[in-house]
Recover the amino acids of this structure.
């Protein structure tokens, strides 16, 4: 069978008609014997391009513009919002050293460092007299965002806050701040206050009678939307980009090929919070961890989309990041990455989990009475 | 449009032109988040130039990251040792970061500040160190600060099997960066 006669894969299409390549060839050819093969090929090619465009358009529309339940997005808002409150609170523990006129890197110096970049921070223009009150106000806004109060406004303000802190202290940042910023951007783009928020609670159905939803409090009063789907898809794609390039970057290093890279991480005293140097007696275990890390990072962007493999990919995401938290003390980074991975958890599972938590809380309250 | 059509083609709820504009932005955005890691050296001049075109968007939104965590491979740590001298001649020694910094996130902030000494542009290096010295001077109330860069190397598995510890003095390499006096340089 020629390649052109092979059946094309069918996208989940608008039209359910099978693609008949033979039919295209019939269209492309004419009964008139004067029709030349070039005309025939142009016809077939044109039909193929049309069909390719139609299917690509259909797949694109289904991927981006199908309504999705905002439950997972709402859950991520709560978790990342809490992480942002904590992260920004910690800046305040040594505020003068990070934002004062005699800070580690002064305001003027950090602007020169980034003079060729397209960056902005309100810290660049804020007089130092107002710095601490503004810091407290920022913590307030981030807290409101976490609880989902005026989320449309507080999400945009939170994004401005996250970007401003990041640009004021670029050399004190690491992976945690990257994932915080990335998720914050998509939570501001999408309707992150549409579930598990004060906003949605205020919009809960007011009429008396039994509630039609199983999620009684009305934390999820907003329904599925294309808007929620776009934000979720963007987070999903960005997680794939992160892991793909984390893996590709490692392929340039010898230690990731000879199996010793994980040892170098374990043997770094400055990162170490759990002594794993006993693994020197089991080099094969270090090699397995090194090779598996690369394999997992490089294949994440493919396997995570295959429903039957998604739980396995996410399980290893949790294992990897909990390992980073335990062994290297980077719990904040580890948790933020796990929160990002949550985007691949179907909203109905999130809803069931939250409902169970809520139900348990109810039982405890009833018992208390 | 019938309800059945809406179920089959929910995207038709968005008029065609706004959907096309939105699609164009989505495509651009996905390219924009992939360009910064693609432009990390070694890279082609083509990718470098493309990343340059997208940079205003990616940088303004804080999306211009390389994601090269522990890549190309986990390397030695860069630390900052200081000796601060008070006016009466007594001294304060310290290392940044030190494990007493709590919470751990604050420790990592200080660790990143010392790690960044490895990639500060040469023309800013002196001023950068002066800024660090000024901050240490303020924190210790000492007018004179001596800074030393410390590189801490990791032992191999064989070395640890033979009894070498991670704190082995030979694993540290020191370079004096300078002496900064608040009354003169700071």
């Amino acid at each position: 069978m020629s390649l052109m006669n092979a059946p094309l894969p069918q996208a989940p299409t608008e039209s359910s008609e099978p693609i008949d390549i033979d039919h295209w060839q019939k269209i492309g050819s004419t009964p008139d014997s004067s029709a030349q093969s070039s005309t025939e090929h142009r016809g077939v090619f044109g039909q193929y391009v049309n069909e390719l465009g139609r299917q690509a358009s259909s797949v694109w529309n289904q991927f981006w513009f199908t309504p999705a339940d905002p439950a997972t997005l709402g859950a991520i808002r709560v978790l990342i919002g809490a992480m942002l409150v904590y992260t920004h609170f910690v800046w305040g523990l040594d505020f003068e050293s990070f934002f004062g006129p005699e800070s580690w890197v002064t305001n003027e110096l950090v602007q020169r460092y980034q003079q060729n970049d397209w960056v902005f921070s309100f810290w660049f223009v804020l007089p130092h007299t107002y710095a601490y009150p503004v810091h407290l106000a920022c913590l307030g806004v981030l807290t409101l965002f976490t609880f989902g109060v005026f989320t449309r406004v507080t999400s945009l303000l939170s994004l401005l806050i996250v970007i401003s802190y990041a640009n004021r202290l670029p050399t004190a940042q690491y992976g945690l701040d990257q994932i915080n910023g990335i998720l914050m951007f998509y939570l501001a783009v999408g309707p992150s206050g549409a579930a598990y928020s004060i906003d949605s609670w205020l919009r809960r159905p007011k009429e008396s009678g039994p509630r039609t939803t199983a999620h009684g409090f009305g934390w999820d009063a907003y329904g599925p939307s294309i808007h929620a789907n776009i934000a979720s898809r963007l987070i999903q794609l960005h997680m794939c980009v992160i892991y793909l390039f984390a893996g590709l970057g490692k392929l340039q290093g010898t230690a990731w090929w000879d199996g010793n890279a994980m040892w170098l991480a374990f043997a770094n005293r400055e990162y170490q919070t759990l002594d794993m140097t006993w693994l020197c007696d089991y080099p094969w275990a270090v090699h397995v961890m090194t090779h598996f890390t690369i394999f997992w990072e490089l294949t994440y962007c493919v396997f995570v989309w295959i429903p039957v493999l998604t739980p396995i990919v996410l399980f290893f995401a949790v294992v990897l990041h909990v390992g980073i938290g335990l062994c290297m003390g980077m719990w904040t980074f580890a948790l933020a990455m796990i929160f990002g991975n949550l985007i691949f958890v179907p909203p109905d599972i999130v809803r069931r989990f939250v409902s169970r938590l809520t139900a348990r809380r109810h039982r405890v309250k009833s018992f208390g009475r | 449009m019938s309800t059945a059509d809406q179920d089959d083609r929910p995207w038709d709820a968005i008029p065609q032109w706004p959907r096309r504009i939105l699609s164009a932005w989505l495509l651009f955005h996905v390219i924009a988040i992939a360009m910064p890691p693609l432009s990390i050296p070694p890279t082609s001049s083509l990718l470098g130039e493309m990343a340059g075109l997208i940079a205003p968007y990616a940088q303004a939104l804080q999306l211009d990251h390389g994601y090269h965590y522990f890549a190309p491979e986990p390397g030695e740590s860069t630390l900052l040792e200081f000796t601060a001298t008070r006016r009466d001649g007594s001294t304060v020694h310290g290392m940044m970061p030190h494990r007493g910094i709590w919470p751990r996130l604050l420790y990592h902030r200080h660790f990143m500040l010392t790690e960044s000494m490895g990639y500060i542009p040469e023309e800013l290096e002196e001023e950068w160190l002066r800024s660090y010295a000024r901050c240490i001077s303020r924190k210790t109330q000492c007018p004179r600060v001596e800074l030393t860069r410390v590189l801490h190397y990791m032992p191999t598995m064989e070395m640890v099997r033979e009894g070498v510890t991670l704190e082995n003095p030979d694993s540290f390499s020191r370079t004096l960066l300078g002496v900064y006096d608040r009354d003169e340089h700071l």
About this structure: The helical segments of chain B are 3-8, 16-38, 45-60, 104-115, 122-140, 157-161. Residues 3-60 of chain B form one domain.
